[in-house]
Structures are given as C-alpha cells and as structure tokens.
Amino acid sequence: MLKKFEDPLKPKFDLDSKYDLWSFKDLVIAGRKRKEVYFAGLIIQSKYVGFYYMPIYTDTSLKDVFKPELLKLLKGKSCFHIKQLDAGLEKQIEVALEKGYALYKKRGWI
Fold first, then answer.
1. Class for domain 3-104, per CATH?
2. How far apart are CA 107 and CA 23, in angstroms?
3. d(CA 15, CA 20)
4. pTM to 2 decimal places
5. In three state form, how does the secondary structure of 11-50 look?
6. From first to last of its 110 residues, what are the pLDDT tens digits of the chain?
7. Of 28, 11, 21, 5, residue with least CA distance to 109
8. Comparing C-alpha atoms, which of 17, 20, 18 is closest to residue 3?
C-alpha cells in the first residue's frame, strides 16, 4: 500500500522488517525549518506489524477516517499494532493514506 506513494515520497528504510516514507523538501512548519517530513511507515515485530501514520499529528480530524475496529489497535497517537489484517482494516488504511497524502500535498509538504 505504501509503495504507491514512493514518488515523490522516498523511503529512509526499505528493509524486510522496516519501511517508511518521507518527503525530502526544505520546509517551514510551525515556525521551524525542516528538510524532511515523515509520512508513514511499517515495522514488523514478532507479534504484530506497527503501522505509523504521521498525518494524524498535523490534522487530528483524520482520526475520523478510522472505524472502531482499527481505532482499538491504536497505541499512542499515531501507531497501530496490527496482528491480523483483514479487508476492512486494509481499506481503512488505504483511505487514510490517500487523505494524508492529499493533506501533505495541500500544505505544500510534497
């Protein structure tokens, strides 16, 4: 799901156990200069896959995209611990990635 966003986003880690996507661009966000912005990533753990979704930090209304079955997997603000992926969870993640990408693009971060 994440691979389709690789252009213009780029991975820092593209390993069997860890994959993430970043926007590499000179930006000013909340008055701070940045050269990169984290978008999303996956980390394979022994008992779950960690799905990290950073757009939720910049617009908390994105949380409304997730239905209760995915929200119960949320640990902290942006990490979901997914033990079993089904079609419903997969669709919610796809929609969230599309909306997060659109948000980053609208803000000029991509």
1. alpha beta
2. 12
3. 9
4. 0.92
5. CCCECCCEEEEEEEEEEEECCEEEEEEEEEEEEECCCCEE
6. 999 999 999 999 999 999 999 999 999 998 999 999 999 999 999 999 999 999 998 888 888 888 899 999 999 889 999 999 999 999 999 999 999 999 999 999 99
7. 28
8. 20
